[in-house]
Task: structure prediction
Amino acid sequence: MIELNKIYNEDCLLTLGRMPDKFVDLVITSPPYNMRTRIRNGKYSTREKGEHFSKKYKYFGDDLPIDDFYSFHSKVLRELIRVAKIVCYNFQIVTGSKEAFFKIIGDFNRDIKDIIIWDKGSGQPAMHEKVLNNCYEIILIIEDDNKAGRAIQNARFSRGEMNNILRIGKGKKVVDEHSAVFPERLAGELIKGFSEEGNLIYDPFIGVGTTAIVAKKLNRNYIGSEIIYEYSRIAEKRIVEKFSLFLDNKREAVQ
Result:
């Protein structure tokens, strides 16, 4: 049994396993980057020693071996394609995800309808020599309709209305424990473009709750999964506080 407007503190594969086919209208998610899986002597290595590699998540290692990272995200994507009409899956190409990311594009080439470039405007300087600064992230737009081409059958935007480059500054840190936060504006653009009021939005890596907050503001239902207990509690608190503030501001605007 799945309840709406709830965050499940569990592995997303457990939540997905309880969902029937095409239960969700839209998935929006930004999985962990695998930032702490690095290269040593030309080979992948986990648990980078430098302090600057471990500041994104307080309660999460973010250091899967590359084969495990690929296998896990492949399983998650297959389940998301089963349960959802449209999937927006955000990746940042870093050392710890690069090989897996390009394999995934090949594996799911038929289902990937397009790619949105999230242009963040600026990026932190690369951590090593001869590495490009990372100023963008990629959002895979996936739909299981068995049709060739780029048309997204369940999209809600009109012809010429939505671009495949979104120029939106990166999200601001809202809590010390989790600095990799999806911007509300980016979540809003995707929700408005690929769903309508009353639809169900799911985020399998909901973190501190941004997708749910924006879904509620835009009159959608949500479900979230978050394996880290501390983040699930932060998310629930933020949803209550942010949505209450949103309603207060709305009332003031009407008066």
Confidence is low (pLDDT under 50) at residues 49-54. The longest helix spans residues 229-254.
